[in-house]
Structure formats: C-alpha cells, structure tokens
C-alpha cells in the first residue's frame, strides 16, 4: 500500500485524538462580579484565573502520572448573594473539581455552604469578613488576611499615624463593608481615638449628600468608608462639593487602580489611605512585578487589585492535586489543608486550621498623581 501524506495526516490526527482522550479534564470554577458596578474588579479576577489555567495547560501538568487538561468554568454573581448561590450550585452541578472565588464576602459566605455540602474546595482570593472561615467548613480557604487584621490596622493608623481627632465612619451594610467598618471602629476606640458618627448607605447608592451633611456638622478630620470603589469615588466627589476636607480611608474594596478615575479631581495627593489584604517585601517584589507585566501583556490591562491572589489560589489548588496524585476533591482536600510553604507571587502561602492564611500581610497605600503608592507592609 502506498503511504500518502493523507495517510500520515490521518495517523497524526488519530494519535492526537488518542492523547486527548487519555487526558483527564480537571474543571476549575471561578465566580466573580463581571457585571454591575464592580465588574472591573470581577473581570480582573477572572482574567487572572484564565492566565493561570493557560499556563498550567502549557506546562503539561500531570496528576498521578496522568496528563491533564485544565478547564475554567467562569460564572458571574454580580456581587449579589442570591446570584452567588445560584452560580455556586451551577458549578456543583457541573462537577467542578474546585472553585476559586467569590470576590465579595457577601457572596462567598452563603456560597461556602453549597460547596461544603458538595465536598468541593473553595479558595477565596478576596473575601475578608471573618465569618467566611468561622462556619467550620473543611472546604473553605482564603489567601488574604481578614477584616480583624485589615480594619484593625487601619483603625490604629488613623489614630496613631494620621493623628485623627474626630473620626467618622460610613459603611454600605454589606458583609464586607459592615465587617471592616466594625473592626476599624474597635481599633479606633482601643487606640484612644474619638468617633464622632457612623452613617450607613448601600452598595448601589450614588447620592450621599444627606449622610455627608450630617457628618460635616461634626467636623471630621478622618472619614472611613467600608465598601467598594464604585461607591467610594462618587462619595469623595460629594465630600469635596460640601467642603469636607478630611482624610479618606478604606479597606481593599476601595484600594484599586480605578479609584483615582472614579474620584476624579476630588482626590488630592496623600488624601486617601487604604489597605490591601496582602503584601510582598524584598525579593518577593520581583515575582509580583513579573506577574503584573505578564498580566499586562496578556490582557493589555493593568491589574486592579485581587488578580495576583486569584492566580495564586488556582496554582495552590493544583499544587495540592499534584501532591495528592488526584484531582478528586475528597482526595486532594487534605493536601490543600496541609499547604504550608507554597511560594506564590503574593508571598508564602500556608493555611491554619480554619482555612485562613497564616501570618497574612497587609499593604498600606496612598495615591499620588492618580497612582497607588505603597506606604508600608504590615503583618
């Protein structure tokens, strides 16, 4: 029989098909708000998950000696708890091997029960409310410090470093915003600071004139906001219009690349002090800088805030699968819990008995020339 190029091509296709059939497909779910007011943050997270999966597939990772192909199943929760639980159930029904997400505490907490009931590991890259890891679920992990650390550090900083004499608080009543505001208040009081008011809004609001007018009468020199950048920016604009010349503080929800655009000319250099739940020092900075450059090259976008933590979460999950020699959630979950020295772009990752990151760092930032400028890394 004469062998032609057609025969060679057919044989090659047959070999490829056999190899693909031999590959195990490992499904990793990702959930974040890719619609709504903080879609820029949700897309930032999703992009990082895409990047991690692309790199893992390019490396030809093997689990238990078998070639695997990683597949990302991305869902949108719009930052809404109901949509978040629906997205979680969809991923469970799709038999994902693990989930990275959700972005918000308010969606991560109710979703965690669904993943726990299904025995599917969940790593949040950004949920900071302490309750997230306090329900006793063995499947729940996070790679950032919680609000006790974040809000507490900012509260002490407001009193001791900013020398705040009259400190006001606003929160958006979400699990994240309320949680970080409460921890901030506790720390202010413990440091001997004076709280002059606590007002409330919601994460969809755009008019803050009433609550700001109430606070203006109390002459605050520091205003802390528990919430996200999409609300913080317009709030700062309205503070300026009312002549409230106070330092503006917040947690990682406002500590984004987008805040300067949202606040516009209402943001003066050094006016904002915020904290990101994570931080690298010394030699670790090189790894983070390389990630930022890689992300920019792949998506032609700058990192907003949480992308490096998503990237690390995906890789930590896969590392546990490799160590367990299985992508079966029941088999690799114990290895994930034992993670104690994974070197990620955000630093060394180790989990405690609750699933919290051990020795979690915070980075304090201000803004200069519309860009984030690091003040210090705090542990």
Automatic annotation (TrEMBL):
What is the official name of this protein in its record?
Branched-chain amino acid ABC transporter substrate-binding protein
The record's section on InterPro entries has:
Leu-bd (IPR028081), Leu_Ile_Val-bd (IPR000709), Peripla_BP_I (IPR028082)
Q: Give any single GO term for biological process.
A: amino acid transport
Q: Where is the signal peptide?
A: 1-22
Residue stretches making up the Leucine-binding protein domain: 26-370
Q: Which key words tag this protein in UniProt?
A: Amino-acid transport, Signal, Transport
Annotated family: Belongs to the leucine-binding protein family.
């Amino acid at each position: 029989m004469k062998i032609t190029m057609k025969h060679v091509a057919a044989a090659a296709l047959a070999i490829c098909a056999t190899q693909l059939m031999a590959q195990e497909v490992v499904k990793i779910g990702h959930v974040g708000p890719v619609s709504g007011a903080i879609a820029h943050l949700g897309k930032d997270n999703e992009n990082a998950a895409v990047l991690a999966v692309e790199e893992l597939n390019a490396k030809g990772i093997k689990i238990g000696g078998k070639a695997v192909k990683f597949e990302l199943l991305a869902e949108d929760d719009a930052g809404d708890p109901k949509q978040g639980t629906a997205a979680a159930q969809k991923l469970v029904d799709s038999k994902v091997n693990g989930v990275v997400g959700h972005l918000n505490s308010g969606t991560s907490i109710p979703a965690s029960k669904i993943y726990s009931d299904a025995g599917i590991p969940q790593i949040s890259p950004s949920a900071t409310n302490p309750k997230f890891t306090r329900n006793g679920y063995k499947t729940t992990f996070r790679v950032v410090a919680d609000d006790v650390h974040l809000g507490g550090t900012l509260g002490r900083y407001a009193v001791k470093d900013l020398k705040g004499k009259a400190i006001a608080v606003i929160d958006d009543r979400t699990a994240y915003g309320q949680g970080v505001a409460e921890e901030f208040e506790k720390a202010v009081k413990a440091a001997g600071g004076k709280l002059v008011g606590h007002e409330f809004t919601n994460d969809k609001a755009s008019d803050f004139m009433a609550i700001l007018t109430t606070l203006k009468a109390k002459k605050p020199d520091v205003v802390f906001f528990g919430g996200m950048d999409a609300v913080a920016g317009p709030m700062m604009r309205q503070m300026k219009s009312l002549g409230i010349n106070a330092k503006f503080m917040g947690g990682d929800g406002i500590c984004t690349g987008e805040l300067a655009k949202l606040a516009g000319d209402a943001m003066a250099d050094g006016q904002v002090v915020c904290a990101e739940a994570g931080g690298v020092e010394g030699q670790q900075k090189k790894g983070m800088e390389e990630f930022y450059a890689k992300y920019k090259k792949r998506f032609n976008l700058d990192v907003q805030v949480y992308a490096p933590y998503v990237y690390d979460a995906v890789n930590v999950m896969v590392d546990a699968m490799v160590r367990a020699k299985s992508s079966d959630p029941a088999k690799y979950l114990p290895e994930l819990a034992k993670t104690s020295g994974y070197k990620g772009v955000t630093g060394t990752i180790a989990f405690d008995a609750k699933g919290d990151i051990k020795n979690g760092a915070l980075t304090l930032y201000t803004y200069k020339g519309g860009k984030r400028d690091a003040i210090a890394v705090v542990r």
